[in-house]
Design goal:
alpha+beta; Amidase signature (AS) enzymes; 3-stranded mixed beta sheet; 5 helices; 3 strands; about 30% helix; globular
Length: about 180
């Protein structure tokens, strides 16, 4: 499922050929496999909570559900989320929990998307490659080793390494679960 588009995944979900639970499990598998080396996440939501959300999406999916309904996604840590801490890549905000979601995050969640985590970024989004607690190690070569078919965004050093969807909003600030596979 690494190279499927949102539309393809949505179609497979509608046909019940895959489930949101399958996608969430594959997502966490990819996080466990690659994130310790690439440090693409600052915060990852508890898997059991996310799996419960996925089960609910599988039960409540309708033929007219949104195309992102039941698909996992991740956002850059610059976007506030009420269920996950938001640090903007800075230790100064290490324990900040927003009382609300950013508008774009809220819209994706209301459309049925399943937020799984917050992607790493440089402090305050200033464009450096030094990330919150860890430095990204050999990001380009690491991707080639991890996923030889990956074609990362040329202008975005921070992305998710998950196998699923791509949601591009306002110059790729919403990092999908498969941001490494551009259109």
């Amino acid at each position: 499922m690494l190279n499927k588009s949102i539309k393809e995944l949505s179609s497979l979900l509608n046909k019940k050929q895959i489930s949101s639970v399958d996608l969430v499990n594959e997502t966490y598998s990819q996080i466990e496999k690659f994130d310790s080396k690439l440090h693409s996440f600052i915060t990852v939501k508890d898997k059991s909570v996310t799996l419960k959300e996925a089960e609910e999406k599988d039960k409540n999916r309708k033929s007219d559900s949104s195309v992102v309904f039941g698909l996992p996604f991740a956002v850059k840590d610059a976007y506030v989320t009420k269920d996950l801490r938001t640090t903007a890549g800075s230790k100064l905000l290490e324990n900040f929990n927003s009382p609300y979601n950013a508008t774009v995050v809220e819209k994706i969640i209301k459309a049925g998307g399943i937020l799984i985590g917050k992607n790493n970024m440089d402090n305050w989004g200033h464009g450096a490659l030094i990330m919150k607690f860890l430095i990204i190690h050999g990001i380009w070569s690491g991707l080639r080793e991890a996923l030889p078919v990956a074609r990362p965004f040329q202008s975005q050093p921070e992305w998710s390494l998950l196998p699923l969807v791509k949601i591009r909003v306002a110059r790729s600030e919403i990092h999908p679960v498969c941001a490494i596979f551009p259109d």
